[in-house]
Amino acid sequence: MKKIAITCALLSSLVASSVWADAASDLKSRLDKVSSFHASFTQKSD
């Protein structure tokens, strides 16, 4: 019974880490888009 609990815990931690990685990469791409947009916007205003 303990093996099943340990396996479930490992699987859930793996899923959580992959979800966090996806969220982090998504956030980074959004930040890159915003920064590039901001850079082009500030260049136009000069």
Automatic annotation (TrEMBL):
Keyword presence, DNA-binding: no
Record keywords: Lipoprotein, Signal
InterPro entries named among the record's database cross-references: OM_lipoprot_carrier_LolA_Pbac
Swiss-Prot/TrEMBL GO biological process terms: lipoprotein transport
GO cellular component: periplasmic space
Domain of life of the source: Bacteria
Signal peptide: 1-21
Alphabetized NCBIfam families for the sequence: lolA (TIGR00547)
Protein name listed in UniProt: Outer-membrane lipoprotein carrier protein
